[in-house]
Design brief:
TIM Barrel; 2 domains; 363 residues; DNA polymerase, domain 1; 37% helix; alpha/beta; 12 helices; two-stranded antiparallel sheet
Length: 363
């Protein structure tokens, strides 16, 4: 595995340029290339990010005579809904999307009393090959473009506004793909997610979480961007022997290197790092592993570490299962005994294969 492949998967089947792929200067250049006055760029940006409209034919402040031209040049259809399924009394909705090249991906919208969270994909499939994750077992199709990532956000924000009279408040890059393996496009998407209107969706950086299996150089690079988003490190084992198997990228960057990069992120940003740990019966749930995890986190991240235990979600063909509740409680107790914060994630969407590790984009 070369470093180039870790940071950027091969560019194949990428969609045509979309308005959302461009920054503010790019918007201006694009509209002037069409022979339109520069102020149209801000109008288009306000329509897309502010009013959540992606079809220029519906943009009433755009002259009717140029709407088709703008649509053809800057607003190609990127994603189409193949299927949307719900559970949790309609509070959880999983959407299967199909891109123009037939690549498929999924996003999950979860509504809670005080917030709404969208779990988005950064790649179609995933190349990290974690054996307990349905997405990882399916392999990588390709990176998503910045606009394909942002279209998931725009659609969910419109759903929250139009169907629930609410607002999309949180974004988690925990859907399909390894975000830091699509670094440049994910970075551009994050910048537009947190930018204030009319140049972005205006979601607080503190409400954006980016999950990674531990691409250490990219974690450090992200820290230096000073965006203030939350980093989630998918660790799943505190020892290299087991993590080499559960998270194959550990063969490149060991537990110590991943934790050192997470510490750098915490030091540079001042933000607490979430340590994701899928608890698997008789695999990584032993008491000694809880003790080792707590010890290593205490030594590296200290108070800036928070362990987020995830009861393993079932995936087709897997012989692994979630740990029994007594063992889960003991694992939590031992980590806390080491002075490290630890909670168990509220699992949503299991029955529609929308929970962590279950996204497979079949259909």
């Amino acid at each position: 595995m070369t470093q180039d492949l870790v940071f950027e998967a091969p560019r194949r089947g990428m969609p045509p340029r979309h308005f959302a792929d461009l920054d503010a200067d790019g918007h201006t250049a694009a509209v002037t290339e069409l022979g339109l006055p520069a102020f149209r760029a801000k109008q288009l940006s306000n329509q897309y990010f502010g009013r959540l409209i992606a079809d220029p034919h519906e943009m009433t402040d755009l002259p009717a005579a140029v709407r088709t031209q703008v649509a053809d040049a800057l607003f190609p259809d990127l994603l189409k809904v193949v299927r949307a399924v719900q559970c949790d009394a309609g509070e959880t909705r999983k959407t299967l999307w199909r891109a123009g090249d037939n690549a498929t991906l999924e996003s999950v919208l979860m509504r809670y009393p005080q917030r709404s969270t969208l779990c988005i994909s950064s790649q179609a499939g995933c190349g990290m090959a974690c054996p307990f994750c349905a997405t990882g077992q399916a392999g990588l199709t390709r990176n998503l473009s910045t606009a394909e990532i942002l279209e998931q956000v725009r659609s969910a924000a419109a759903t929250m506004r139009d169907e629930h009279d609410g607002r999309l408040s949180n974004i988690v890059f925990m859907g399909m793909g390894e975000p830091l393996a699509n670094y440049n496009r994910v970075l551009a998407a994050v910048k537009r997610i947190i930018a204030p209107a009319p140049y972005g969706f205006g979601i607080s950086a503190r409400s954006v979480t980016l999950s990674t299996v531990g691409l250490a150089p990219a974690i450090r690079k992200l820290a230096d961007e000073q965006l203030g988003v939350t980093l989630a490190l998918s660790l799943h084992a505190p020892d290299d022997e087991l993590r080499d198997t559960l998270v194959p990228v550990n063969n490149r960057w060991k537990v110590g290197e991943a934790l050192d990069a997470a510490k750098y992120y915490a030091d540079v940003t001042g933000r607490r790092v979430s340590i994701e740990y899928a608890l698997i019966r008789d695999v990584n749930d032993q008491s000694w592993r809880a003790d080792l995890l707590g010890k290593k986190l205490r030594a590296t991240l200290g108070p800036l570490a928070h362990v987020n235990l995830i009861p393993l979600n079932p995936t087709p063909g897997s012989e692994w299962d979630a740990s029994p509740k007594p063992q889960e409680r003991e694992f939590v107790r031992r980590i806390r005994e080491r002075g490290v914060s630890c909670t168990v994630r509220d699992t949503r969407g299991r029955e529609i294969a929308a929970a962590c590790g279950q996204l497979a984009a079949e259909g």
